[in-house]
Amino acid sequence: MGQKGRVHSVESMGTLDGPGIRFVIFLQGCPLRCVYCHNPDTWSVSGGRIEDADFLVERIISFKPYMDASGGGVTLSGGEPTLQPDFAAHIMKKCKDAGINTALDTGGYCKRNAFEKILPYTDLVLFDIKHLDPKVHMELTGKDNRLILENLKFIDSLGKKIWIRHVLLPGFTDDVTHLKKLGEFLKSLNSLELVELLPYHKLGIHKWEALGLKYPLKDVKPPSREILERARAILREMGLNVI
Length: 243
Prior knowledge:
The chain is of the alpha/beta class. It is built from nine helices and eight strands.
């Protein structure tokens, strides 16, 4: 019997979670309760299905030709993969041993020792920043952001490649003052390679309703193209590589 963990779902030919074609494993469980989450069905730590890490790695390796040809690899996402650090580390180590690029998609809310287990086998960290203001962060996620920002600085200190992900949410993260503060903070990261601005969307509302949850942003519209372009321009003018 190998290392076991809870998995929500997998995507064998993903193109949105790191470079190239990627085998994406969405692990079950998340400590944050983001008001715009499009996968609230990943929140429960007792949900999903129990999977064997070695079996998953066998599936991942079968897609290696596509990964190699595209500069892709494997991405552990969620939910929050650091909630299952031993399971995540086992998968990442086996993939590294097989010559597969590894990426960790995280919201950063976990004890440092979880990162200490996973990061030795991680090539790229996709790190979600919800908001820099602690009060707004609490409103958006239900948690304070102090631990998250400390973990981000720790990852940066290790020299790991970092891609920052930031959801552009009208009324919360699209104002000029916030974006300039975000830009100044990101400029302090030595290992930052890329900033991904992700437009808020409503594609997950049906999941909230299916779970009997009230969707808190029902009246908030996705950002316009003009708002997106303005946000990109602000961060690019500060010298950041933004897509």
